[in-house]
Amino acid sequence: MLYRRFGRTELQMPVFSCGGMRYQFKWQDVAPSEIPADNQANLEATIRQAIEVGINHIETARGYGSSEMQLGKILPNFPREQLIVQTKVSPVADAKEFRKTFEQSLRNLQLDYVDLLGLHGINHAESFDYSIRPGGCLEVAQQLQAEGKVRFIGFSTHGPTDVIVQAINTNLFDYVNLHWYYINQWNWAAIAAATDHDMGVFIISPSDKGGKLYDPPPKLVELCAPLSPMVFNDLFCLSHPQVHTLSVGAAKPQDFDEHLKTLELLDRSSEILPAILARLEAETIATLGEDWVKTWQINLPPWEEIPGQVNIKVILWLFNLAIAYDLVDYAKMRYNLLGNGSHWFPGNKADHLDKLELRQCLAQNPQADKIPQFLAKAHEMLAGEEVKRLSKN
Predict the structure, then answer these.
(1) 154/105 same-domain check
(2) A single Gene Ontology molecular function, please (predicted)?
């Protein structure tokens, strides 16, 4: 395993982390007696394999159902100083409730402290306010830190880049969990800001939200050769020293195997990546046209300012991925979450375009004439049954 300094925490962080939202029994709390023996055995085997290969950062959240409680049956078996344990608790209006929820996390994990506590989901103005206002959840986290129950405080986010940067620039957090990978590089400004503040940078779900790369379409496999799409994406992310660790949402012990192939390639990333990156970019231009590729995002208003709150930026992004790389299944999964993802994946689908007047909000975009047609095509291609966030299943 390779390790990187996790910003000002000074923790030596493995470049892969063991994310805890795939191996648990249920997304809701259940009694320990309800956990099937085979499920618990698989979880414990996965943790043992992670630690065996040097992945000693175990990451979970109060919102991951039975994950914490199941981890609590295995983590105390390891020397505590060898583990980096992170849990996350969502900021809420009542900071006392935040403390109560964290105390439950600690009981579930059967630990005296966690190394990393993340405020889970600073995604919009409201969750930001709940976190940093006087008497808010961050103050409670700092009290827990003073009590020795938390070593370092960070936040996770699925929010827009400006909200992330705003939270980073408070200089009140030691690290950030955010989305950034090859198919979605919008948050680079947030990573740059985190680097300026010497914060740890943890990349959320690079293989799932980064394109369902564990089940890639043949076209993407061909474009990423000789690497698998998963190894290409890992190498792309880790070739940037500002990125410290990538989450591996392992569901079974073998799920680490493909990622580990990246380690021996890191020293040669500057030799390996350019040809693949050039091929991916050329295919995007060949399928979508250079003018569209270079200008479709210009002056797009945020979804809140668009009639019907249609999330035009996300819809066009998904459409582009489906056309250029055949990431249709991925695009469908994400598209059908729109309208049902709350502040974790906000905005609506393009399903009522005939009732909306978009000309004014698109007036400053050079592709204004094409965008309504592309939105209609995207809806025709991607629409299906509504998808719920995993934690709501």
Answers:
(1) yes
(2) oxidoreductase activity
Specify the amino acid at residue 159: G
Q: Is 281 a domain residue?
A: no
The domain total for the chain is: 2
Q: Which domain does 88 fall in, by range?
A: 3-270
Q: Kindly report the CATH number assigned to the domain that includes residue 245.
A: 3.20.20.100
Q: Hey, how many other C-beta atoms are within 10 angstroms of the C-beta on 150?
A: 21
pLDDT exceeds 80 at position 279: yes
Is residue 85 domain-resident? Answer: yes
CB 304 within 8 A of CB 356: no
- pTM of the complete model: 0.93
57's enclosing H/E stretch is: strand 57-59
Decide: helix, strand or coil at residue 56. Answer: coil
Residue 138 Rama label (left phi>0; alpha psi -120 to 50; beta):
alpha
Kindly state the tokens that stand for 141: 């986290």
3-class SS shares of the chain: helix, strand, coil, % to 5: 50, 15, 40
Torsion of CA 350, 351, 352, 358, to 10 degrees: 10
> Amino acid letter at 271?
E
Task: Using pLDDT thresholds of 50, 70 and 90, give the confidence band for residue 180.
Answer: very high
Residue 14 Cα distances to 5, 25, 154, 174, 260, angstroms: 9, 26, 17, 17, 11
Residues 266 and 334 in one domain: no
Domain-located, residue 276: no
Quick one: pLDDT band at residue 393, thresholds 50, 70, 90?
A: very low
